[in-house]
Amino acid sequence: MAPPPSTVVSPVTAVLLRILTFVFLLVSLVILITNTVTLYLSIDSIDEITKLHFKDVYAYRYMVASIVTGIAYTLLQTVFNIFQVSMGKRVGGVGLYQFDCYGDKVMSYILATGASAGFGATIDLKSAFSLGAADKFFNKAIVASTLLLLGFLSTAISSVFSSLALPKRD
Amino acid sequence: MAPPPSTVVSPVTAVLLRILTFVFLLVSLVILITNTVTLYLSIDSIDEITKLHFKDVYAYRYMVASIVTGIAYTLLQTVFNIFQVSMGKRVGGVGLYQFDCYGDKVMSYILATGASAGFGATIDLKSAFSLGAADKFFNKAIVASTLLLLGFLSTAISSVFSSLALPKRD
User: Fold this and answer.
1) 3-state secondary structure (DSSP) of residue B49
2) Which of A86, B101, B118, B164 could crosslink B145 through cysteines, CB 3.0-4.6 Å?
3) CATH 2.40.30, domain A20-169, yes or no
4) pTM score
5) Residues A10-19: pLDDT tens digits?
């Protein structure tokens, strides 16, 4: 009879999932912080030039904060996982399995809220300000939010694996 | 020697946590769907009367959808937990523990994204439209988002308990 399937994935799969998360978050961050648009407005016959940047939208500031936290956490976990693959054992012992489990849980919530704050603000701001130039700015923000959502999904998958790994090491 | 502390909470605590979640979500829903404001706008010397409702903001529609899903799920879990308290055993057996674990996980993500979409849209729309009457509308939306956030937090706590309960029943 074949042995029962293990519920914990191999360390190589875990590393690949972390690298995938890292790539999603990094590309999302680059798109978000390089996203600018210059608007030429005419209010009460006075021409105004306004430059929009991610800092001008509170939701995008929160997105950047959540992505930076996510990148730092994912890098740390990638180092731990690469150590595990090369040394054949988990660094830090049982305590680190608990760190994985709760860390992944909290981090996936942070990334989920970052992505949905981005979508929430962008979709409604885009429909409120139907200007051609601003549209491009908001479309790029949607792309960044989608990549952050993908980063959340891969972290959520890591979270399921680390939850399943916890009782096996307790 | 005292027995090791159980990581699973009593069914009574579980019921109370579900009822708390239900109350947060219900009050949030009532505030959100009864929130309206009439705006008197003057655009190009033409007076316009616009009535704002939750349906006019996409993020609030998503909030309502996430709250309704959360209320349905919480009611179902409350019934299961009350049955467990009164009968002294869990309805449905081992399969239901997995339903609890993954259900709580997915539901907490839905509520977290609902709350943050609400905050994301409201804070930026509020700063973009600095009208006295609209301010009241957005302030009520912030209250609804905060209650939804509390509903998420209590579901996240339920999720930690149901994750810890799962390996004990496998």
Assistant:
1) strand
2) B118
3) no
4) 0.88
5) 888 889 999 9
